[in-house]
Write a structure and sequence with these properties.
5'-3' exonuclease acting preferentially on double-stranded DNA. By secondary structure, this protein is α/β, with parallel strands linked by helices. The chain is built from 14 helices and 6 strands. It has a 6-stranded mixed β-sheet with strand order 3-2-1-4-5-6. Strand 5 and strand 6 form a beta hairpin.
């Protein structure tokens, strides 16, 4: 089974879930580093993946999404001196004590031998979407981001291990979960989210169309494409009161939003060995990292969890 980690989602959760009093010998906070290592160890022990990829945001706010919807993640753009020093693009607002931990996380993943994948101009979601699209067998996606519910597919199966309740209390998201939670077909989450919008990502949705109306439209017509085809054909049956007018007013948004909401499935990725290692790829580097950042205990737990 292939396990795909939405690494930024996980290290943010680790950062806020582990006290910043957890520090390296020199006093540098390593709460996100330690928390992420323990998360991976827990996942490996509980789910026994044979392959794993830690996906990263090479671009947390890709230009193609901003060009389509300028408000996309605009509220997360860092303000002040640090963002002014960014030569190109916008810098994400990240807590100051988390920033120096991200390179350490990358070094740990590399030394252990867990594949770390990213693609210029794309988010981790897009890397996950592409790897999922390429995979023939089962896939587990570990994330705290509902956007990736769009990838669930019982036939494969593709599941989301949703971390909202914590890494030891994961919600298993499959098509039945999506249907039960939102009242929509299990594979229709992206179309539903396009209509409803998502303030956390700066996606406005269709004004006046909330979760219930969006669910009703997708359930009645099956897809956003079918909703719009019925709208253009003058169909009135199946449209909740006032929704035809609201959808017509939002046609410009609806023409570009799907490309923003949907995870890409064709991102150019470098060749990578996704096999979960049985032993560290670079044990000497791992010892140096353990000593430098005080990571002996979490790294030993991770190494004990690895196969072989």
């Amino acid at each position: 089974m292939l396990m795909l980690l939405d690494t930024p989602s996980l290290y943010f959760r680790a950062f806020y879930g582990v006290p910043d009093s957890v520090t390296a010998p020199d006093g540098m906070p390593v709460n996100a580093v330690r928390g992420l290592i323990d998360m991976i160890a827990t996942l490996v022990r509980a789910h026994s993946p044979t392959r794993m990829a830690a996906t990263m945001d090479a671009d947390w706010r890709p230009a193609f999404r901003v060009a389509a919807i300028p408000t996309y993640k605009a509220h997360r753009v860092a303000q002040g001196d640090r963002s002014a020093r960014v030569a190109q693009g916008d810098e994400e607002e990240v807590p100051d004590t988390l920033v120096p931990q991200i390179p350490v996380i990358e070094q740990v993943l590399d030394a252990v031998g867990i594949a770390r994948l990213e693609a210029p101009g794309f988010e981790a979601d897009d890397v996950i979407g592409t790897l999922t699209h390429r995979e023939d067998g089962p896939v587990d996606i570990v994330t705290g981001d509902r956007d990736l519910f769009q990838l669930v597919d019982d036939a494969r199966p593709v599941r989301v291990l949703y971390t909202a309740r914590g890494i030891r209390n994961l919600q298993i998201v499959d098509e039945a979960f999506v249907t039960g939670k939102y009242g929509i077909p299990g594979r229709a989450y992206a179309d539903f989210a396009t209509l409803r919008g998502d303030p956390s990502d700066g996606l406005p949705g269709v004004a006046g169309v909330g979760e219930k109306t969006a669910a009703s439209l997708i359930t009645r017509f099956g897809s956003l494409e079918a909703v719009l085809a019925a709208l253009d054909a003058g169909v009135t049956e199946g449209f909740p009161a006032g929704s035809r007018t609201r959808l017509s007013a939002a046609r410009d948004y609806l023409s570009v939003a799907p490309a923003v909401v949907e995870a890409s499935s064709d991102v150019p990725l470098p060749a990578a060995d996704l096999a979960l290692p049985g032993k560290p790829r670079d044990p000497e580097a791992l010892v140096r990292l353990a000593d430098r950042y005080g990571l002996d205990s979490p790294l030993n737990r991770l190494l004990d969890a690895l196969p072989g």
